[in-house]
Amino acid sequence: MEVLDKLTEGLKLFSADVAxxxxxxxxxxxxxxxxxxLQIDERLKNSLKNIGITxxxxxxxxxxxxxxxxxxxxxxxxxxxxxxxxxxxxxxxxALKGEKSVIVYPTKALARDQLSRILRLIKNLPINVGIIDGxxxxxxxxxxxxxxxxxxxxxxxMIHVGLPLSPNFRRIIRSAEHFVFDEIHVYEGVLGSHLxxxxxxxxxxxxxxxxxxxxxxxxxxxxxxxxxFDGPGEIIEGTKxxxxxxxxxxxxxxxxxxxxxxxxxxxxxxxNGLRTLVFTDSQQMAEVTAKIxxxxxxxxxxxxxxxxxxxxIKIEEDLKNGKIMGVVATPTLELGIDIGDLDxxxxxxxxxxxxxxxxxxxxxxxxxxxxYIITILGDDPIDSYFLRKPExxxxxxxxxxxxxxxxxxxxxxxxxxxxxxxxxxxxxxxPPLWVKALKExxxxxxxxxxxxxxxATKQTKIFVINSSLRSTGPIIKIYNGEKKxxxxxxxxxxxxxxxxxxxxxxKKNYIVKDVDLNTLVARxxxxxxxxxxxxxPLYDVDMVNFTxxxxxxVYGLPVKYGEIEVRISVHGYIxxxxxSKKENxxxxxxxxxxxxxxxxxxxxxxxxxxxxxxxxxDGMEAYHATEHVLISAGRVVAGASLTDLSGISYPSGHVVIxxxxxxxxxVAKLLYDRLxxxxxxxxxxxxxxxxxxxxxxxxxxPYCGNNNKMLSRKKSFRLISEVIxxxxxxxxxxxxxxxx
Length: 740
What we know:
It is a single chain. This protein is of the alpha/beta class. The chain has five domains: 31-237, P-loop containing nucleotide triphosphate hydrolases (Rossmann fold); 249-394, P-loop containing nucleotide triphosphate hydrolases (Rossmann fold), CATH 3.40.50.300; 409-465; 475-531, no CATH class; 540-583 and 597-725, Gyrase A, domain 2. 35% of the residues lie in helices and 26% in strands. The protein has 23 helices and 29 strands. The strands form six sheets. It has a seven-stranded mixed β-sheet, sandwiched between helices. A seven-stranded parallel β-sheet has the order 6-7-5-8-9-4-10, sandwiched between helices. It has a five-stranded mixed β-sheet with strand order 21-20-24-23-22. Helix 20 packs across helix 22 (675-688). The longest helix has 22 residues, at 616-637. The chain is globular and about 75 Å long. Residues 736-740 have low confidence and may be disordered. This is DEAD/DEAH box helicase domain protein. It holds the Pfam family DEAD.
């Protein structure tokens, strides 16, 4: 408990304190057979023993038996509990029998990290392993195409474009018998829909491939496996964490800057010999936290997207080898990249979901070491709720993946890619939704259908080449003089790149001089001296135009679906002192002319009534809360992830819910089609919550643009109840009151 005592004493310097300590203990996972007694190749037995594996856990042995029997499985076990070995050992044994496999990781970085782990196991085995992704040099691709590996490592994006565009890549994929999908908790929402369509393409609408999946943090069921992989599968559960103990510590910041506290606590623990990883959800706040740590006498590196891959790899290696003791990271280190044994994970802000919390917490205290997981809570409504009810923070349930297999926008992308691979397809050989998707593509001029046969055209290829599973927006390139120092994707780029913003790259200071959204170029200027402040944007999000595609009545309310123009307007910024004691202290600077970015997406507009006894404030609280809860209901009825949908609510009763990505993703359309069901789910959420008038379980959102102000669970419950009863019909004129 010495570490807890040091934390408690250290926090007193900032008038903060430890609000709650949750102790987690775990026994050794149930042991299975000794390696010598397994029914696997003798050469593999020797390799396992050479790296210290002499006995399997029971769940690993079960996975071995099921996979060798060609059964589809989903392995669920905590970070560092041997989940990877559970699928890798049988895959290697099958490779020694001449059977080929493909291992699919969600990111290139994770794939390359896991390669070293696999190579260690096959050091003396006649097994070839190779990676093909967007970063694979041509000479290496040619080598792998000439001599296909026993195990190919890749990612979903490469499979998506590789199957139709590369005959050599297609030959390797089509010759594989076993497919492993690791870290499947990443595939929620639209990305999960994309993964299901890739599975359909790999199977070619049959069930003749063998699927193995794994995850550390997911609530799963055979039904979820069936939906994601279109076939039956067995769930094999390991353990939440390795043997040992972890202390989960909630810190009440009491108004102190969470970034200062995170940096101070990291410095305190690093000076006491503890390897420490700090998580933030913002690239620039990761940089800010690392800069503040300098003041406390420790050098923490920054690991985030937007820096060179070589820099990220060096940071990972230096942390693993003990050359550095601390790193501040965005979710880039959330997945299973090997960074060695960590003692402490500090979360500068509560992660947006419990599965992300578990994933990050699992990085500390591995291999029988005590782990310390510190979460800094502020005074916003979500954090305040958990400070009042800390046990609920740790009693949350892991939920199954939300995704929808009927998202037509997603199916169109894969139907075009599949057609491009085949050249021509008879429509009667495809599932009904794929036929519908191809017919829409035909209307759009992207494919050609003649006599119920679809043909790929030049436009099909262009469409596939320009498609993306990640739905990326335009990219702003950032230059210091003639040197490119980074890039950021719109629209989120505007939250970091705006005139006079302090932009940090590997703790180096830059000032943004100019942002040209026409050329997608930002110019920055290096500042040699350390700046004592950082900046945050002041911005508004609004709907500026709507083009109707269709409309209908939902419980008597007019609802329209169509193309929405969303405008982000950065009208100034706040200057925050790095070392200010209060998180909300800052000087506001307003621009003469705002920086605006308008993009098109798709969404729905609902016109709610103004209830007779509701004041203006009552209505705002009801509409805002209903916006939040309908978006939450979208996870149930439309398979939305946490970030697939965004919303805007107006005092007039209009609620706008739209796809978060540029161009749209199809999720808002599913919500529109199933809005009656969404209202029913929303009523259940606001009606059965036991909070006073709003909490994270009902109407608070981690992505709320105004920090969860003007929300009322009770007023939302009243409004939704009236809507479902059909008593709250609004005027037929959708625009009876202006939404502006």
